[in-house]
Structure formats: structure tokens, C-alpha cells
Amino acid sequence: MASNSAKIPVLLLKTKSTPTDAYEDIFSTPREGDGFAFEPLFVPVLQHQFEDDGMQLVGKLLQERQIGNGPETIYGGLIFTSQRAVEAFAKLVDDGKGDKDWPHLQDIPIYSVGPATTRALKAIPQTPPLQIFGEHTGNGDALAQFILEHYGEWYKDRPTKPPLLFLVGEQRRDIIPKTLMDENLPSNQRIQVSEIVVYGTGVMESFASDFADVLQKTADRPSRWVIVFSPTGCDSMLKGLGMLDGETGKVIEKPDEKRITYIATIGPTTRNYLKRTFDYEPDVCAEKPSPEGVWQGITEFIKKLT
């Protein structure tokens, strides 16, 4: 087994998931015959806090059973695209638990963008279990297209589909509401979406110093990778790497400098943000926003270098 000094550091700009973290698992487990040895290191960049107004609003909807499949309910389904939104929802479910059928959501579709969000939703107690769909889609664009077809079929007997409730953070893309409420869609296919902000996100005050510490500790390695999971914190990351021009705010090209640091993004949203905001093209953009997708993107890139 390779010693730590011989391993390639992988700086994961995220909070380590508990009880296990799939990124830590995949980057710390050697695969027979592939020759790669990585050392995963976590550098938390985001801090989250629940938004009281949104939490109270969703809590009231749950208590008054306004999310269901009956004609008298306001919403006919739920959408989740982040684990933080699921955490907020899980807290509301836990706070309000009473009768055995709580939270009374067994008869509606719940849409989830990927495996991590789905796992978090499956952990929420409901008898019978929550009906969760969309795990295979992987991004908001694909999920929106899936919802159009699936939700349309779910409520096919209704000429006007009941609105969907989308629990979101302060910062989010608008692709799902725009797609589902597109005025070019026939009225019997269009789906109204209400967004309720249940959490806020910001950069941790300690991130700059934490990141600097890890960079210093790994400065003697032949190479290292930084994995970026969201646009939040990109500015601090690039500053920490000394890549930003103080005047233009864009990445400075240093063609003659020997590189040891490479950057990968979990998907196109963050890659496009880096390109648009900083004129920077990351080395790798995972084809699938998953631990396996990131691992595959990095290992294929390394093979091309050798």
C-alpha cells in the first residue's frame, strides 16, 4: 500500500457526509490493477442555516394536509434537488410527528434529482414509504423533462395538473420551474411550481485559512486535485491557489509554470460558472455528478498525461 506521501491528494471542497461519505470511500479504496492511490482530504466550504419563514410555511402545509392527491389540496407533489432541502424537510417531519400516518404523503410523487438526495429522502419515516422518482436523471434539466411526462401521467385525469412544491435554497437554478411552466406547453401539460426557500448558504469564514493549510501541507506532492461541488466558494478557492488577477477578477494564465494542482467540477453548472465568471476551464467536468463520475473523470485525465 502506498504511503501518504506517495498518494495524490484529493481536496474535496465539501463537508464530510455522515455516517459514511461516498467520495471518501471511492478515493481511499485502492482498485486492483489500476495503479492509482489517492488521499481524500475534506475542506468544508459551505455553511447552511434553515430559513425560518420558509420552514414555518412548509410546516403549516404539512400540518393542514395541503400536500396530497385530493382535489382540495394545494400541492400534488414535491421536488428536491439538494440534500440540504431534504434535511430541512426531515426536520419538519420529525418536529410534527404524531399519528401513525404522518406526514400523510404516501399517495403523491416525490421527485429527487440523484442518488444522494434519494438516499436522504428514503431515510424519512413514512408508512407506507414515500414514493420517490427521478433518481436516475442526475441533473435539473433531465429531472424537469422526466417530471413533465411522469407527473402528467400521474394526474392524467385532471385537465389542469395540481401545482408542485419545490423546496430550495437561496441560490438555485431556475431550469425546473422554467421548463415545467413554459408557456409554449399546452395548458394540459403545463405544471405550476411554487418555490419555498428552506435554507440559506454562504462561504464558511474559516474556509480561506483551512484551504491555505491543506495547500501548504500538500505543496510537496507531485500533483493534487481540487474537487469543486458548487459555484459558492469558487472565488475563495481560486484566490487561495493564487490564480486570480486582482484587477480583472479573471484567472491569470501561467503557461511556463510547472503545474501540480488540477481542478475538477462535479458537473456542468459549476464548470459553466467558472468559465463565465473567471474565464477558467477546469481540467475535468464529471460526466455524471457522482463519486464514480468524478473518480472516472480524474483517472482518465491522469492516464492521458502519462
Helices and strands in order, then pairings?
Layout lengths: L7 E5 L9 H7 L9 E5 L3 E5 L1 H12 L13 E4 L2 H14 L12 E4 L2 H8 L8 E3 L6 H15 L9 E6 L5 H6 L12 E11 L3 H11 L6 E5 L5 H7 L20 E5 L2 H11 L5 E2 L5 H15 L1
Parallel strand pairs: 1-2, 1-9, 4-5, 4-7, 5-6, 7-8, 9-10, 10-11
Antiparallel strand pairs: 3-8
What does this structure look like?
The chain is α/β, with parallel strands linked by helices and 306 residues long. α4 (115-122) links the parallel β5 and β6 (131-133). It has ten helices and eleven strands. Strands 3-8-7-4-5-6 form a six-stranded mixed beta sheet, with helices on both faces. The chain has helices at 22-28, 52-63, 83-96, 115-122, 140-154, 175-180, 207-217, 234-240, 268-278, 291-305, and strands at residues 8-12, 38-42, 46-50, 77-80, 109-112, 131-133, 164-169, 193-203, 224-228, 261-265, 284-285. The model has no long low-confidence stretch (mean pLDDT 92).
